[in-house]
Design brief:
299 residues; alpha/beta; TIM Barrel; eight-stranded mixed β-sheet; 10 helices; 10 strands; globular
Length: 299
């Protein structure tokens, strides 16, 4: 039987750590450092980190620390970029210890990428769900294969659809992220339509539309600085969002664009709320609704 030294010195976070807006009040446990892909040209979050899975002793110490000081929080989010890439046996060990030490926790969530999902069998995903994994967050960014290739996403639109369906078939909730502006001005509406079509076929539980914000040190920022990439204008961002929603048909999912990066917060439950969302965007386009000022936008 393996034994671990118990410490009471706080959570062990390394570098910048991010989580979805919906996990703002969750217990954040960093089980990996960095992102196993880490090639997307728009993302600078993990550039200073070399990917690795954290030691079991550190993970267990953090779970035990949470058991003492975080009893008011009933959700756990596993960081960093793609915790699902962790081998099944160790990931099950993490979930089992969360159940043991944090029995009041109702749901565990994590980021995932297409590669990580593909590596798990349907049976393994079901096993994870039965042991507490309730939601996965998948960065789709775009449904346009040309744009996916340009941004070095490392996957195709159809593969993203297949992996999203695989997650939901196991009974795990799926939240996908798409990026307004990632195709630039020239391909803005093309990207919006293709993304709407992908979302319609995938039919996730939640869609979060973020707006691209250029980060210094990333290839996308350098392309922008050199004039090889042009961001849409505020109005063009709204038109892109409208085109995306117009081409999206979800059976019962929620569509959000209420992230701090967005100019216009939209929240709609499909299919009933789709037209209301389009009407809201039209009002903004006609100047009847104000937009978030630039100084208030953030990642």
């Amino acid at each position: 039987m393996q034994r671990y030294a118990m410490e009471d010195e706080g959570m062990h976070y390394e570098g910048n750590c991010i989580r979805p807006p919906s996990e703002a009040y969750s217990i954040l446990i960093q089980v990996t450092v960095g992102c196993s892909h880490n090639k997307c040209i728009f993302c600078g979050t993990y550039k200073d980190k070399r990917f690795r899975i954290k030691d079991e002793s550190v993970i267990l110490n953090d779970i035990i620390f949470a058991s003492k000081y975080m009893k008011q929080q009933d959700k756990v989010f596993l960081m960093d970029g793609d915790a699902l890439i962790i081998p099944q046996k160790r990931l099950m060990w993490i979930l089992e210890n969360i159940k043991k030490y944090l029995p009041w926790v109702k749901r565990v969530g994590a980021y995932a990428n297409a590669k990580g999902i593909k590596m798990k069998s349907p049976e393994e995903l079901t096993e994870l769900r039965k042991n507490g994994l309730g939601i996965l967050y998948l960065g789709v960014e775009t449904g346009d294969n040309e744009v996916l290739k340009t941004i070095h996403k490392g996957t195709s639109a159809q593969n993203l659809i297949n992996m999203g369906k695989k997650v939901m078939a196991a009974g795990i909730k799926l939240s996908v992220t798409v990026l307004l502006g990632i195709a630039g001005r020239e391909k803005s509406l093309q990207h919006a339509r293709a993304t709407g079509m992908l979302l319609s076929e995938m039919d996730p539980d939640y869609v979060g539309a973020l707006t691209v914000m250029l980060m210094e040190g990333t290839p996308l920022y350098e392309a922008y600085r050199k004039g090889d990439f042009e961001l849409p204008t505020e109005r063009e961002f709204l038109l892109e969002l409208r085109e995306m929603i117009a081409n999206t048909d979800l059976s019962k999912g929620m569509f959000f664009s209420n992230h701090a990066s967005n100019y216009l917060p939209v929240k709609a439950r499909f299919p009933k709320g789709k037209q209301q969302a389009l009407d809201q965007i039209d009002m903004a386009l006609n100047g009847k609704i104000g937009l978030r000022p630039e100084w208030m936008r953030a990642l």
